[in-house]
């Protein structure tokens, strides 16, 4: 199976799989420009752990792996592996600034609960994988 690419939407048709906010795109563009990697994008992924069962991860990546979903939104290439996609479908990557600093976050319609720090989540009727997920926000 090869990577699936979804071009930037035309008109008012939103990208359904995953998107990035205007502010998130501006921050990502700045980070990507300083990365030194040509044709790099933002890889968004899910891993087990965190206080709610699953934890978000993001990285600058210039590789397109077999099975990746590749979406270009607001000029930013977003890469999602096939295992993470079902849990991220319909999500929006954003950047938030607050008194503690700033960082990327994921607005995920699939999450039914999340920890207070916003870096981990749980879906309906899903137990934490492998018995993980009982720690607090500091356990990331």
Automatic annotation (TrEMBL):
Any one Pfam family match given in the protein's UniProt record, by short name: Fe-S_biosyn
Core domain boundaries: 18-118
PROSITE patterns reported in the protein's UniProt record: HESB
Domain of life: Bacteria
Gene3D superfamilies named among the record's database cross-references: HesB-like domain (2.60.300.12)
Name of the featured protein: Iron-sulfur cluster insertion protein ErpA
């Amino acid at each position: 199976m090869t990577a699936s690419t979804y071009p930037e939407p035309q008109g008012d048709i939103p990208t359904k799989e995953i998107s990035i906010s205007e502010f998130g795109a501006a921050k990502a563009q700045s980070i990507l420009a300083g990365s030194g990697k040509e044709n790099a994008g933002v890889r968004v992924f899910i891993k087990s752990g965190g206080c709610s069962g699953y934890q978000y991860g993001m990285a600058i990546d210039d590789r397109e792996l077999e099975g990746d979903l590749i979406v270009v939104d607001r000029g930013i290439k977003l890469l999602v592996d096939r295992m993470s996609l079902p849990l991220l479908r319909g999500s929006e990557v954003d950047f938030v600034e607050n008194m503690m600093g700033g960082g990327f976050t994921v607005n995920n319609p699939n999450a039914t609960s999340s920890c207070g720090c916003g870096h981990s989540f749980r879906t309906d009727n899903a137990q934490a994988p492998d018995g993980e997920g009982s720690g607090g926000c500091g356990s990331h």
